[in-house]
Amino acid sequence: MTSLHPGSAPPTLSKGDGLATVSVRGLSHWYGTGSMERQVLQGIDLEIRPGEVVLLTGPSGCGKTTLLTLVGALRQVMEGSVRVLGCELKGSSRHERQLLRRSVGMIFQGHNLLRCLTAEQNVQMGADLLPDLGYRARRDLSREWLRAVGLSDHLGKLPHDLSGGQKQRVAIARALAAHPRLLLADEPTAALDSRTGREVVDLLKRLARDEGCGVLMVTHDPRILDVADRLVRMEDGRLWASDTADG
Amino acid sequence: MTLWQGRRIPLAWLLLTRQPMRLAVALAGITFAGILMFMQLGFRDALFDSSITVHKLFDTDLVLLSPRTKSSISMAGFPQRRLVQAMADPDVTGTTPVHWNLLLWRNPKTKGTRSILALGFEPRDPLFIDPAVTALTPRLTQKGRVLFDDQSRDEFGPVATWFSEGRTVESEVAGKRLRVAGLFTAGASFGADGNILTSRETFLSLLPNTPPGSIELGLIRLRPGADPAQVVKRLQGLLPEDVSVLTKQGFLDLEMDYWRSSTAIGFIFSLGAAMGFVVGCVIVYQILYSDVSDHLPEYATLMAMGYSLLTLLGVVAREGLLLAIFGYLPAYAAGQVLYAVIHAATKLPVAMAGDRAITVFLMILVMCMGSAAMAMRKLGDADPADIF
Question: ipTM of this predicted complex?
Answer without folding.
Answer: 0.85
